[in-house]
Specification:
207 residues; alpha+beta; Lipocalin; eleven-stranded antiparallel beta sheet; disordered N terminus
């Protein structure tokens, strides 16, 4: 009886340790060595639509599969990596009146809290509130986000070179250009005040 009790207690202890280990928060690195991660932006004015993207993405997110609501992190975009097809338009966009990338090298979003968190299988949806900084101006923003946690899928993405987990982050929201001092005098019939932003990026947690 004593041996059985000892074995049972040992098994419970090992189970508790295993569960604690599995429930530990994971840190995901969003600096993608493949260069696939990107952010897309669109300004759809009556006379002109401006579409572009940026791939200079980095940052880390701490995600606990057992407690997604506790997610924290910061995503950073190198402002100089923003690109539009028209060379002159790109020069203006990176210049002093627009993003002024010589002085403001980063665009960033730092998550502070999550609400309306719902998890189904590998997917978690939530409204994330945080600080968005563009052109040196910081504003509190709340945006819908979808996290897809892919356990043991890092090897599949890296052709077996790395083992670990993936976290795919998807978001689609809009901000006002003039709220961040981005050429507020630009005519809105040619340059929309609303900037639609779409983010689809994968972060890795090697082990």
């Amino acid at each position: 009886m004593h041996l059985m009790k000892t074995a049972t207690l040992s098994l419970l202890a090992l189970t508790a340790i295993s569960l604690a280990s599995n429930a530990a928060p994971l840190t995901f690195d969003f600096k993608d060595p493949k260069g696939v991660n990107n952010a897309v932006f669109k300004l759809d004015a009556p006379l002109e639509a401006i579409n572009g993207s940026a791939n200079g993405i980095s940052g880390t997110v701490t995600f606990d599969p057992a407690d997604p609501a506790a997610t924290k992190g910061k995503i950073v975009v190198a402002a100089s990596s923003l690109h539009v097809p028209n060379p002159m338009m790109k020069e203006h966009m990176l210049g002093e009146q627009w993003l002024d990338v010589a002085k403001n090298k980063e665009i960033s979003f730092e998550a502070k809290s999550l609400s309306n968190v719902k998890t189904t299988g590998d997917n978690t949806t939530a409204d994330v509130t945080g600080t968005l900084t563009i052109r040196g101006v910081s504003k509190e923003v709340t945006a819908p986000v979808k996290f897809t946690y892919l356990k043991d899928k890092l090897a599949a993405r890296t052709n077996g070179q790395m083992k670990g987990d993936l976290l795919v982050l998807r978001a689609n929201f809009a901000v006002k250009r003039t709220d961040f001092g981005i050429n507020p005098k630009a005519p809105e019939d040619k340059v929309a005040d609303t900037i639609d932003l779409t983010l689809s990026i994968a972060g890795s947690s090697p082990r």
